[in-house]
Structures are given as C-alpha cells and as structure tokens.
Amino acid sequence: MSDASPLKVEKDGHIAWLVLNRPEKRNTMDQVFFQAMIDQFDELDHDPEVRVVVIRGEGKSFSAGLDLASAGNLTASQAADYRETLRREIVRLQYSMTCIEKSAKPVIAAVHSHCIGGGVDLCCACDIRIASRDAIFSVREARIAIVADLGTLQRLPAIVGESWARELALTGRDFSAEQAKDMGFLTHICDDREALYKKAGELAREIADLSPLAVQGVKDTMRFSKENGVQAGLEYVAQKNAAIIMCEDVVEAFSAFLEKRKPDFKGR
Fold it and tell me: What local confidence, expressed as pLDDT, does residue 210 receive?
C-alpha cells in the first residue's frame, strides 16, 4: 500500500507492523480505512512469511475513533429503504474489525495516547493489548447518541467482565492505562512509546519463534471455544491436534529438545 493509504505495513522478519497512517487526522476511521483493514488482513493472512501482526498508530494518537465528518453522510436520508441500506453498510463495516479476530495470525495492539470509540473496537478484536502509560481509552459512542456497533459491546465483556463493560459503555467515560490493566484489558503498561514498541516487538518475536501451526491452532481453538462452549472446543482441539501431530514442526521440537538446542520451526 502507498503512503497515501490509511494503513501501511512494515515487515521485520516474521513480524508485520500494521501502522494506522492518518496522523494528521489522529488516525480517525473513515470508509477508506475500513475497507483498507479488510483488504490488508486478507493479504497478511495469505502471506506465509508473516506469523504475527502488531498494530500501532502513527502520530499523536493511536486512534480517535470514527471520522465524524465522513460519517455525516450515513445520516443523509430518513427514508425507510435507506435505513435498510444503512444496516447493510454497518454489517460491512463490522467485518473490518471481525477480520482481525478471525485472522489466522495472532494480533497485538500497541496503544499510545488516545484510543477512542472505534479504536477500542479494534483493540477488542486483537489477541493481546499493551499500552504506554499515557494511553486513554473510551467507549465513547453513547456520548454522541449512538450505540457502539463494531464489536466492543460483544467482545469487551469477555475481556474485562460484564460489570466493567456495562459501566464503560453506559457512561462513555475515559479510563486510563492503569485502570485498563486492572480490569484485564491490557497485559502490560510501558513508560513511553519507545518502550511500548520494544515490548510489542519482544512479544511478537516470542510468538513468531514458535511453530506457526501450533500458534495459529491455539488462536483458532480459543476463538472456536469462546463461540461454541467447552465441550465443543474440546472436540475441536482433539481433531485439530490429530491433524497436525505428525507435522515437521513437532519432529523438530522433539529433536531440538533431545539435542539441547533452539528449534527452527518452518510451519510445515
């Protein structure tokens, strides 16, 4: 993608850094952004060299959420038939976040400064969330008279618990990185952006060094189990392990253990 895109990709070995690239707009999300997310994750999913994705924001904010100027077009008509058109458009936009959750590759969100509205939707769809100490979060939609509709209300309760999710969504108030970590929304807080990206890189490399078949199997199994329950999840992982147990990476893991060396996984 070109520098004019709302997204850019920087690759470092098996790690792809997906950069929110509208710094002059505080990485607000417009129609072009939503489609770019869908297209970019399709590319990353089909790139065998990419094992982990880290999402970060360029400029002063991670994301200030929905681009309200462009969103004004969505309320251009009060006609009944337009409301059905709008419903279908919202469903399409939802996939710009769902594609993160459904991606085969683990995704880490590295958040600095403001992460508002759609930024929280994005983070909720990621596997791991870390932030710098200056990060400020808000499920802001109720404060602008709409209902959050890109996934926060569906995903946040499973991350922080029903009570916290309801309080944050119903009040629309800001909450700090420290509060987000206390709730379980974040796993790590870093002192500044430099430390944040260093930590994100360390986590990504730790994951990328493992067998991608196993890592992707873990993500897929956890998502399936959340959606379908414990027993269905147990049956699912039994089938998955039966399918991959004789792969080259498993043989390499055992060989490396016996030879007292670091394994070199190929994803085969």
Answer: 96
